[in-house]
Amino acid sequence: MTTAPPATDERLGSPGLLDRLVLRPEIGSLLGALLVFAFFSVVTERFLSTGGVATWLDDASTLGIMAVAVALLMVGGEFDLSAGVLTASTALVTAILATRLGWNVWLALLASLAFALAVGVLNGWLVMRTGLPSFIVTLGTFLALQGLNLGVTRLVTGTVQVSGMRSAEGYASAGFLFASTFTIGGTAFYVSILWWVLVTVAASVVLLRTRFGNWTFAVGGSAPAARAVGVPVFRTKVALFATTAFAAWLVGSINILRFTSVQANQGIGLEFQYIIAAVIGGCLLTGGFGSAVGAAVGALIFGMARQGIVYANWNSDWFQLFLGVMLLAAVLVNNALRRRAERVRR
Amino acid sequence: MTTAPPATDERLGSPGLLDRLVLRPEIGSLLGALLVFAFFSVVTERFLSTGGVATWLDDASTLGIMAVAVALLMVGGEFDLSAGVLTASTALVTAILATRLGWNVWLALLASLAFALAVGVLNGWLVMRTGLPSFIVTLGTFLALQGLNLGVTRLVTGTVQVSGMRSAEGYASAGFLFASTFTIGGTAFYVSILWWVLVTVAASVVLLRTRFGNWTFAVGGSAPAARAVGVPVFRTKVALFATTAFAAWLVGSINILRFTSVQANQGIGLEFQYIIAAVIGGCLLTGGFGSAVGAAVGALIFGMARQGIVYANWNSDWFQLFLGVMLLAAVLVNNALRRRAERVRR
Amino acid sequence: ACSGPTATNTDSTNADGTGTGAAQAPTGDLRVAVISHGTAGDAFWNVVKNGATDAGRQLGVTVDYNSDGDPGRQATLVDNAVSQGVGGIVVSMANPDALKTSVENAVKAGIPVITINSGSERSAAFGALAHVGQEESVAGEQAGAKLREAGKATLLCVIHEAGNIGLNQRCDGARAGFGGTVSTLQVDINNPTDVEARIKGALQTDTSVDAVLALNPQVAVSAVNAVKGASSAAAVATFDLNADVTGAIKAGDVLFAVDQQQYEQGYLPIVMLKLYRDNANTVGGGKPVLTGPGFVDRSNVDEVAEYAERGTR
Amino acid sequence: MSDQPLIEVRGVGKAHGSVVALHDVSTTVAAGEVTCVLGDNGAGKSTLIKVLAGVHRHDSGELLVSGEPVRFGSPREALDLGIATVHQDLAVVPLMSVWRNFFLGSEPTTGVGPFRFLDRRRARATTRSALADLGIDLRDVEQPVGTLSGGERQCVAIARAIHFGAKVLILDEPTAALGVKQAGVVLRYVAQARDRGLGIVLVTHNPHHAHPVGDRFLLLKRGRSLGSHEKADIGLDELTRQMAGGAELEALEHELRGTTG
Amino acid sequence: MSDQPLIEVRGVGKAHGSVVALHDVSTTVAAGEVTCVLGDNGAGKSTLIKVLAGVHRHDSGELLVSGEPVRFGSPREALDLGIATVHQDLAVVPLMSVWRNFFLGSEPTTGVGPFRFLDRRRARATTRSALADLGIDLRDVEQPVGTLSGGERQCVAIARAIHFGAKVLILDEPTAALGVKQAGVVLRYVAQARDRGLGIVLVTHNPHHAHPVGDRFLLLKRGRSLGSHEKADIGLDELTRQMAGGAELEALEHELRGTTG
Ligand SMILES: Nc1ncnc2c1ncn2[C@@H]1O[C@H](COP(=O)(O)OP(=O)(O)OP(=O)(O)O)[C@@H](O)[C@H]1O
Ligand SMILES: Nc1ncnc2c1ncn2[C@@H]1O[C@H](COP(=O)(O)OP(=O)(O)OP(=O)(O)O)[C@@H](O)[C@H]1O
Ligand SMILES: [Mg+2]
Ligand SMILES: [Mg+2]
């Protein structure tokens, strides 16, 4: 990413390529991912088959899209606990409009996008206006959305799910964009994997190469300092919340078009998986430091570990235990490296 | 708590009793609690009856015990995501020892206390040794404990719950201490309410009046600064993790002795309620600021809102919506005040 | 709706309930609290709730439905109902020990209690009026037996909520009824991608699996996708219904759906409590009132589909 | 020098809750002149600076920029009027690299439309040379600012303000953490900027720094103004005595030497 | 003054990752003497101080306290040997009140056994008077330190070190943020402590502060030692010249005056 300066400074010790690498927040997670990958490739047969790869990439993809957006937000110093439920809310809005009111799917998607952005902007606006921690504000939105999801679904359908998307007008074209598969080596991969890559690349470029990215680091690292040099803190943070909401809409759309039905309590609890993937990827909970690629890799670790355990055919009673040990191992293995980074960093 | 100094300084404006109050972190939550209390007292009939009070105090009590401990930990700058599951783990250990191995209940309680403290110390030790954020480390313990709870329970009992405590030896005396009721005005109140009060008072005194409390604020506010003036940062943080584990054991014991059975997936997700109660009570997520009383009041708000909604007979489909709006209202109503505090504070 | 002086209903299972009730209603309106251990938004318990509220609407009974998957907090909800002085309590007893004190307190306070779903063997001991429903394990057992009949040898039982006692009982029952090899798989119901991916992974890993038992219609649909994705020949069976599942049954993708007729588990207790208050009737004679299980397969799916659509099957 | 002062402060006051940090302070900042703000610790100097820079909004009094009364809602508004500030705290974002801090809020970009990316090469080069001009020779402008020494960090903020300052340059104790050489360079910069016609506000505790460059000296004490002096009216010794509140450093110096063996 | 120096530093080095912050530096701190550490920004002064205070562990060389070689694992160990330090950063915990910061790590308690509570009355009174002695008159010692002005904050750290310093007092740019009066008071304190037989290490950029009290001057540049001078060997002007690396403030002063109209 960065080219070394003409370093002939006697105050610099060893050339320090390693130290330079170590400074990148995502390095730790990359090593962790390699470890998990190697482990399951050796331990199980199916993990490395194209079918296997397709499965764990699929699992990681929607998580990854959200983790990347959440990572941006965390770099900006905020949390969004409503992100998980919002994936279900957007799917519900789309599904209700398309199946009950007979809207064209594309129109329904547009409407749910507007809805998602409204929620995101509201989150951001509340956080900035009230000065309350985003943890509390978005908790409120989280609970409110959760209630709305269930209440509205039951009101409209009498059940706790909305289904029947497949017969809605415009399903085929929208489904192609969000939920089709493409074939590599005879195996079908879901298009959500491409979305994930796209989102990661875009987020990475924005974060590292644009003014907005610079502001994101600044408002997360020290909002008063950023304000003092003229960074529009309010707008930046609101935009970050809106970005997260947009990602939630994307994932919601992928889900509703792929599964053609959506359950009212979907998405609950996933918000923490997003945060966890971002933190594994090197984001600081306190803001101001992190990377989009790291978050994507964090999601990959999650996906690989989750599916790897299934492939390894371990008793699924102990699933969480394996997952916990796996995660700890993945973050501990590069601990020496990370500490070195810490040491260099401050 | 504090007596005003002989303030005849011309640089101080109005006497500022209000501003002094506002500086206390728990004031916001107290106002919020009053609001919720007044609301449900007016809207519902039974909320204010002794039976009603007993119910919502009961609901708040175990949450409150944990919230207070978690608040101490958060003041010390750390999270413990394993706190919720640990309440179930300790209960499971007690129950399995007492019902399957036939141990005396007291002995089983001692053993599970040792287990809890071991988990707490392990959490603290890992966090301090590895330098990883406690969010990640305790997430690992969280998942591991969750897996262990399910795996061990199914291994030992074949089902996902352990029951039959009532017939274990020593149940009566242990039950008296942890799960009995006392009667006021003809209504039975659970003894867990007393434990809650006791824990809150003890934590408050420790936090505000002892060296350890001073160190807690310091390690959370700025660990390097605290280290530089000789505060034993390592020991302080480990002790805080152990305190949280102790509280989890207390709640686990109260639960197992009262309900005489425990389900393997109990406690999951509660860790965030603890954190939320602490934050509502004025704890900063970034550490270094907060109060035990505030966390207890945060739990009270939770308990009142949760049961109040039931008393109000609102459609439970919208339960979460009401809870979310309630919480937001409770924290927003004192927003003006809080902001004032922020202004004074920094 | 409270009229009709000739309340001569017998204690049969005639539950049409329109216009029943007694003129000499002792305390006016009847309020019943239904407290289940289902998580909010659970498909099974949604139907129970619909049953209870429909009965309430038809009989002029106020029904408050609340639920909490945590046994302790479910007990607190019972305490809450007692302190509200409701006219009747309907409670599901997945964890009888935890509810013992609260239910007994309710009985002591003179509130008639009816237990539903599981907990039939402890129901009477706690002083409940009656039990409606059936142990989850029985339903599981019959599902297992039916799969066995279909000639399946290796079964994968998908638990979508780790540690949920009801789901575990279903799988344990299936194990007993099936006889062959049964393995369980934990998935996260809130994450549909994860559900599909994990079932697919399990099918790819163990190619001998020839039957998948889902415990939730949403999971069933994912299981169908997973079976296709893994190019497996496994048959899918499920608990409960939704529009997608009825479609899949018609299409032959799903073998059958276990229908516990849980609508009755919500509906009947309201009727029973109303009868009990107005006419001191009891039902079941100390034996549980069984509601199922029934099976929905190709033969009867057309008939049931529309009920499932509106959330009553 | 000009009729219309760049900034005029009239009886400005500011309280934090019940704490009165500033009360009824007046001064002017004219083009081509240096206004020094002097005073004890806690006198309210930084508070005044923050009002001028748009960080705080004043509670009472008036603030006029180029004759127009203003109430800044944010530092951006002050910056847009050409007022650049080096704060005593709030200076930098520790986790960000030196060059990112340097250009924060005024990032140079290349490309057009949605493809306007940071011009990182230019940003790095500019940062390096701006700091080198102040006598700070950095190993690496990619280093997070948090790892710099106190003085280096201060220099990043100063270099930034000098680089972007258009009409008014406000410096709050810029030389406090600086070495002798760096402090000299900064003072020379201040003099150069003044000669280019900028208005300068300089806060300092060092009479040796204030006296050579200052044209006007505003003395604060406990949030109130002790009066304003033109350079002609006051010598270094008198200034030092005023700043020390009557005590004198020279006397102290003798005392210090006296006690040595 | 005594045969055995309180602290002896022999060829100490310290690197942060690949950044060499200190390389082969030696000096001594004797009882009743003031060792001044001088140097440019980023010269490594604070790094040296942190090694002495136990915040960093040195990578190479030797550190001897009262003749015993030590490698501090934590600042506590240094404090236990009577070494009190005022750091340039790491000074205080912003969210904590002034008196809590003052006594942090050395809290006074009353009562016995498990009922040993903070003696808050005494702590508050001591804090107030210790700060008043430095010329800082606080409104309220319950105020969070984060709301104090830069100089007030610095004074809290200094007052604390002076209060608890037993054998060695290390001050890293203590006077940087201080007013003329406060700086004078601090220097007088340093002189008094020296006369009581403490060993003092003083980092400063102000030759006017260093020269009157210093006995030994260690000059650092880019992490390396430029040599150590005894007071007798070096005058104020020479010291200033050395600190500025050849340039001279007086010349600069003339230049600054010269450019004025
Ligand atoms: N947010 C705040 N809340 C309460 N008091 C504050 C706040 N900010 C500043 N003060 C008080 O206002 C007074 C003036 O502070 P200010 O920072 O302006 O002083 P200063 O003149 O810059 O001092 P120094 O020379 O030490 O930097 C101080 O006594 C400080 O305690
Ligand atoms: N954690 C760290 N990581 C990388 N480099 C560091 C770190 N800490 C200090 N440095 C570098 O070491 C050098 C010496 O820093 P130090 O703080 O000792 O300087 P100083 O002499 O105290 O300067 P000043 O007078 O400005 O306070 C600086 O160039 C700084 O950038
Ligand atoms: Mg200041
Ligand atoms: Mg320094």
Automatic annotation (TrEMBL), chains A, B:
Q: Does the keyword Transmembrane apply?
A: yes
**Where is the protein localized?**
Cell membrane
How this chain sits in the membrane, per its record, is: Multi-pass membrane protein
* Primary location group: membrane
Transmembrane intervals? 27-44, 56-75, 81-98, 105-126, 132-152, 173-198, 238-260, 272-305, 317-337
What's in the keyword line of the UniProt record?
A: Cell inner membrane, Cell membrane, Membrane, Sugar transport, Transmembrane, Transmembrane helix, Transport
Instruction: Name the InterPro entries for this protein.
Output: ABC_transp_permease (IPR001851)
Listed Pfam families: BPD_transp_2 (PF02653)
Q: What does this protein do?
A: Part of the binding-protein-dependent transport system for D-xylose. Probably responsible for the translocation of the substrate across the membrane.
Name of the molecule in the record: Xylose transport system permease protein XylH
From TrEMBL, chains D, E:
Instruction: Provide the GO MF annotations for this entry.
Output: ATP binding
| Domain ABC transporter intervals | 7-247
* Keywords per UniProt: ATP-binding, Nucleotide-binding, Sugar transport, Transport
- InterPro entries hit by this protein: AAA+_ATPase, ABC_carbohydrate_import_ATPase, ABC_transporter-like_ATP-bd, ABC_transporter-like_CS, P-loop_NTPase
What Gene3D superfamilies does UniProt report for this protein, alphabetically?
Answer: P-loop containing nucleotide triphosphate hydrolases
Q: What is this protein called?
A: Simple sugar transport system ATP-binding protein
State the organism of origin.
Answer: Saccharothrix longispora
